[in-house]
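Archive record
______________

***
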Amino acid sequence: MHSPKNEAELATLIADAKAPFCIEGGGTRGCGGRGERLSLRGLSGIELYEPGSLTLVARAGTPMAEIRALLASEGQRLAFEPMDARGLCGTVGEPTIGGVFATNSSGPRRIQGGAARDYLLGVRFVDGIGQSVKNGGRVMKNVTGYDLVKLMAGAYGTLGVMSEVSLKVLPTPEALATVSVEVPDLTQAVRAMSAALGSPYDVTGAAYDPVMSQVHIRLEGFAPSVSYRKERLGAELAGFGEISSQEDSAVLWRGIRDVAGFHEREGDVWRISVKPSDAPALAPLLEAEALQFDWGGGLIWALTAPGRDLRARLAHAGVAGHATLVRAAPEVIATLDRFQPQAAPLAAISEGLRRRFDPRGLFNPGLMG
């Protein structure tokens, strides 16, 4: 295993490479490509934190626990709510900030606040010839040419190896509350979530638990505002079913974020993005052992029997969307591929970008096509 301690060592390692690398941060997602392991855990440390400017700069291998603790000490947080994948994927190790942005990990708050990439201000990375590249900065601004900041987020390390990230953080809200609605089925659940998201009450989470037949709607902000919005939203949603409150909303939404209901359960785990209105018709066709719905019904987590091809079921149902195989045995991943196959025009663009940034095919080969 290779574990460089700084960007210069990383650049030299890549420039001298004779074989491809399987790039990993904390190794908590278990989704690297083929090749020799290249760990970024040695590139750790917070370079800059300016609470007044809501800005943080950290090396890619910095543990998320360290970043969260520092932000919490100043009453701040990461707005995009990245998941902790260890329970779902059955892995160990420490999630890193580089891994979060490499996977564009975004939790329930995405429907209101945006994805991880929307908070990434700048990156430093090493490309496939061992050249250090910097793009972006420490403030939000318009970009001309390649927006490499957005390009690197969600590329799973296939375009370059991130060494440093700068990001925007936000204050932690004063209060958090959840309005829960008991509904008879998924169709009513999607309607209830759509009503909540279309309301003026600044909803920051909308999820459905089919086991408990409950829709959960999250509200955050100043305590008087949250109390008022909770009362008004509860009254508006009462027509969908019985209204209740959650005693510990933070634990509830952490479980939704991390798909806690699937932990320690056997089977493949799929992450499916669709239009919320398509979810009720699609869900029965998946024949899943368990389901969880987030983003107002637009994000479906499915636990299935090993080897079941859910992409074929989406196509058969005529549903526009994409399905990612998050957890499965290596032989299943080899057969089905982890990521949704791209349409030919998009695949051509992706391949062109990989040839430009990784001309020798060193970074996570086979992971994304």
